[in-house]
Amino acid sequence: MKTILLLLFSISLFAIDDLTDYRINGIEKIEKKMDLQLTKKEYWDKYIQNIDTSFGYIEKYSSILTCDKNSSTLNLYKKDKNSTFKFIKRYDAYTGKEAGDKVKEGDLRTPIGIYKITKKLKKLDSFYGPLAFVTSYPNIYDRFKGKDGHGIWIHGLPTGQERDQFTKGCIAIDNSGIKCLDKNIKIENTLLIINKTKVPKNISKEKLSTILSQLYMWRYSWIYNDIDTYINFYSKDFIRDNKMDIERFKRYKTRIFKKNEKKTILFNDISVIKYPNTNNIYQITFKEIYRSSTFKFTGDKMLMVQLDDLNSMKIFTEK
Q: What is the predicted pLDDT for the residue at 13?
């Protein structure tokens, strides 16, 4: 069925010469033309036109938690049957004692950023209530900025003792709330966005389609071994999460591209989200499926990008 749909899609996009090319030479040339079509902004403009982009372009996550530190609230949104994020519930929340973004261990600040929920804890000290959700702080952007610390949770309140009206950096809600949240989310499909104020909604479709088209141009140059175009997507200040700088990264990728291998690269579960409290910085995540004769990989990928004055995407760190 998927192959049939792809062929029907190609018929609608390509001229008779393209179909003749496919008839004589097979799928490879047509595949390249289809890969190129995915780099066109016009395609993405049309594709996301009727998609809910309240929090960005989001394929994977069905639940979004937003935390407004100033108003001390945690808000739950869930996708409905129309794939629209609907507000479900607001929880009063305690956050870190100190204002501002978390920078280092013990600074009593709740971080500002985008985080996954990595696991649920139930066997806890009674101070944290009946259960807790562990977040992915620090993420790659936090590490890029030199932040440290760990153990940022969403948890409940003490069951047999008093507590202050703040936390050491976690987000705390009352115990009926944490139990309610547990019933309403699946941790693998939930994303947490923390901001110093209300998390912005209705992210620009224009910016999102620009990023998606460039993401697929980056992929196109990768698949077809165009090292110059590929490297041009990277900032001169690029530092990979493993500390590889742009010069070492360029040499590493040049060696790989010189093999001129045929490869398959697919992106699934794509999310493009504007990073809180930043200017034109976006977090891109997706599941990457990579196949060549010498290497195979299936796993999660994250890019941190900034749009410059010309709306060109520059990757400044990745994992």
A: 52
Which H or E run includes 274?
A: strand 264-274
Q: Where are the domains of the chain?
A: 26-52+203-318, 61-195
For residues 87-124, b (16+ Cβ closer than 10 Å) or e, as one string?
ebeebebbbbeeeebbeeeebebbbbbbbbbeeeeeee
**DSSP-assigned states of every residue in 63-76:** EEEEEETTTTEEEE
3-state secondary structure of 82: coil
Burial 141-163 (b: 16+ CB within 10 A, else e): bbebeebebeebbbbbbeeeeee
How is residue 245 written in tokens? 């700088």
CATH of 61-195, one of 3.50.50.60, 1.10.3720.10, 3.30.70.660, 2.40.440.10: 2.40.440.10
Rounded-to-integer distance, Cα 273 and Cα 208, Å = 8
Please give the order of strands across the beta sheet that includes 57-58.
57-58, 264-274, 281-291, 296-307, 313-318
Q: What is the pTM of this model?
A: 0.92
The whole-number mean pLDDT for each consecutive block of 10 residues of the chain, a chain of 319 residues, reads: 48 64 78 94 97 97 98 97 97 96 97 98 93 98 97 93 88 97 97 96 95 98 98 98 98 96 96 96 98 96 96 97
Q: How far apart are CA 228 and CA 175, in angstroms?
A: 55
Assigned fold of 26-52+203-318 = Nuclear Transport Factor 2; Chain: A, (3.10.450)
